[in-house]
Every structure is written in structure tokens, then in C-alpha cells.
Amino acid sequence: MNIDREVAPEQAGFDARRLARLDAHFAGYVDDGRLAGWQIVVARAGKVVHSSTYGARDAEAGLPVEPDTQWRIYSMTKPITSVAAMMLWEEGHFELTDPISRWLPEFADVRVFDKGSASQPFTVPAMEPIRVWHLLTHTSGLTYGFLRTSVVDALYRKAGYDVLPKTGVDLAQASRDWAALPLLFQPGTAWGYGVSTDVLGRLVEVVSGRSLPDFLRTRIFEPLGMVDTCWSVEAGSKRMAALYVPGPDGRATRFDPIGKAAFEAPAAPSGGGGLISTAADYQRFMQMLLQRGTLAGERLLSSRTIGFMTRNHLPGGVDLDTLQTGGFAETTFEGVGFGLGFAVVRDPVPARVWSSPGTYYWGGAASTAFWVDPVERLTVGLYTQMMPSSTYPLRPQLRQLVYSALID
């Protein structure tokens, strides 16, 4: 499915010459070899005002980025899984304050790292249970093995959970494995990036009685017309972008050891980072969010639920800079809160990059990014395949260029 410009920039409050700066600026990343290629889509009030591609989806094969290129969206999976969970919440299956051990008994007696080393950790009992809202806000104490910033993530790697999932383990077993590891902090006391949304995906499975892929396909992808969003593609697919990392010379270097996972059906579908999608598909998801839960006659969530999800749910109403534990994250921390599945801008001034208060967003490990600005009725998506996402300041630069093109 292609995604074409639907309205002239001037009709949507943009200066076309200023909007063209997007392509000129990001083309530089490809021309000097830092990125292989990219795709950018900007829409306002549901109409695409800018849609562009540049460079290669697979530089080694000489294949250019096309409008229907498929991208690993990694952590941009998280908002989708969060929507799935909130659909079940709307149906009364659970309350956000419920302990997750009600459905996932392995989390009944979790412990928290206190001191020691990966070879001899000392733990204490959790002061309160992990609750559903802890998973949605990354305040559960669960972490990632690939962060390499704590004893706890070293324990994850020791248990077989690094960048790629443990071989042959399904989501149910992965959940049991994570529950057996100590938490990084007491639930609800800090913010730490980790497998919270993967556990949320397992919760969706148990509560709904369906696999996570089946639930997402029938309840979200098919109703929204997201025809190219999936967990894997066939080997040899020509639409799939290759994955890259910065090489010793700073140029994009193909990285198949992780990239090849896109061609294998996952044993444990990752609700936190497992999806492949296209710009057109994710645009439909963003538009559903902007329209407060509905698209093309299909309603996934109540308008009030979308409003609730996109408020700051961090304890005390503080920002991430106050609660974050350090390490890898898909967002800057200053002036940013966290809702139920999204980072939420409280005040753009501390980060020194403009976006309207109330804008919500996230990104993926391969430098993809999106945001929804309800004030300006703006949705923006960036798609590329450079790991890690902190390699280049693509996201703040994208905001800077998009907002400076608005002139109404």
C-alpha cells in the first residue's frame, strides 16, 4: 500500500519551501553514508501533506526505498500492544490497579535487587505487587538485558535474554523466566525501560484467551486496514529494508545477525518490539489515535480512553528526568512524562525542541519514530533502519524542521 500526498502544504498551514528542508537535510545523512535510506510522512488533520523517500532500503542489493517498504519498527510496537491491553480494560476484564499475578501467577512473589553482583546478587521482597499500570508506564522494575547498565540486566543476559530473545522459548515461558529474575527497583518507585510491554502482551494473551498475534490481527490490524503489519516476512522478501549499524568509518554497515530475525516467525512474539510495518500502516494507527480511537467507521477505543492514556501517569506527576534509572531509552527526559504506552510532552522548553504540550510519541531501536500532536492535529512518522537509535539526533532534528515549516 502506497502513501501519497493528499493536500498541498499551503492548504494545511505549511510553507512548502520550509517543508522541503526535511528532504534536503535528511538526504545529507544518506549522501555521506551515515544512513542507507529513509522515509518521512507528515500529515495534518488526517491529510498527508508531505511524503518522501530517499536512499536504499537495501544498499547492497541496490534496492531503493519505496513507499511500500517494510521496516522493523521495534519499540513502536509498544503503543500497539498498549492499545490492545486498553481495549480489554474497556471491556472490564481488569482494573489498572490489579496485580498482574492474578493472571500471571509467576509474578506472585517477585523480589527486588538490593546489592551484590551478577554472580552473587542479594534481593529483598517487593513492597507491593506489579500492577497493570506499572507495565503500561515502565514503572514495574523489569528491565532489558541489552542495556548493560546494572547488575540486573547482567542477570537477564545470563538467563539468555539479550538483544534477541532466548532461542525456542515461547512468551509464556519468557514471562516465567523474567518473573524469576530480580526487579531493578521497587514497583512504582522509578522508571526503567524493559520487558514490561512484553509481559503486557502475555497478559493480553491470558485475559483474551488468544495469542497476541491473533488478537492484534483481528482486533487492530484488520479493522484499521493495516495490511502489511506482521511479525515476520518471507525469506527473500524484496520489500524488507536491511538493518544497519555504524561501521568503524562512520558509514552505515549492514548487520544481518540481528536483521535476519525479521525472516523468522518468533517463538515469543514481542509485544514490546517485534513488529514489522509500513509507513502507510502506521499512519493509519496514528490517525486512529489522533481521531481519539476511531478510523474509517471502526472504533477501537473510547475518546475518553485515548485522553486518559495520553496524560502523564508517573507517580506525583513528575517527569522522566526525575524517575529514570539511566541507560537506553527512546526519549529525552526533560519536560516529558509517560502515559499508558506513550511518552507525553508536559513542557517542551526543558528539552529545547518545540512540540505542543500534550504531544505523545515513541520510537524504535532502529531509529524509527512517530509523534501525534493533538493541538496541531499533526502526525509524523520517520522510518529508517539504523541501530542503535541514539546514533544520530534524527528525532529532535525532525521536530525542529517540521514545526518550523508550520506558518498558520
What does this structure look like?
The chain is globular and about 60 Å long. The mean pLDDT is about 95. The longest helix is centred in the N-terminal third of the chain and has 14 residues. The chain contains 13 helices and 16 strands. It folds into 2 domains: about 260 residues, DD-peptidase/beta-lactamase superfamily (Beta-lactamase), CATH 3.40.710.10; about 130 residues, 3-Layer(aba) Sandwich (Beta-lactamase). The protein starts with 15 loop residues before the first helix and ends in a 5-residue tail after the last helix. The chain is of the alpha+beta class. The strands form 5 sheets. An 8-stranded antiparallel beta sheet has the order 3-2-1-16-15-14-13-12, with helices on both faces. About 30% of the residues lie in helices and about 15% in strands.
Secondary structure: elements and pairs:
Elements: H1 16-19, H2 21-31, E1 37-44, E2 47-58, E3 63-64, E4 71-72, H3 77-90, E5 111-116, E6 121-125, H4 132-137, H5 151-158, H6 171-180, H7 196-208, H8 212-224, E7 244-246, E8 252-254, H9 256-259, E9 276-277, H10 279-290, E10 294-295, E11 298-299, H11 303-309, H12 320-323, E12 336-338, E13 343-345, E14 360-363, E15 369-373, E16 378-383, H13 394-403
Antiparallel strand pairs: 1-2, 1-16, 2-3, 4-9, 5-6, 7-8, 10-11, 12-13, 13-14, 14-15, 15-16
Helix pairs in contact: 3-7
Pfam families: Beta-lactamase
Keywords: Hydrolase
Domain Beta-lactamase-related: 22-398
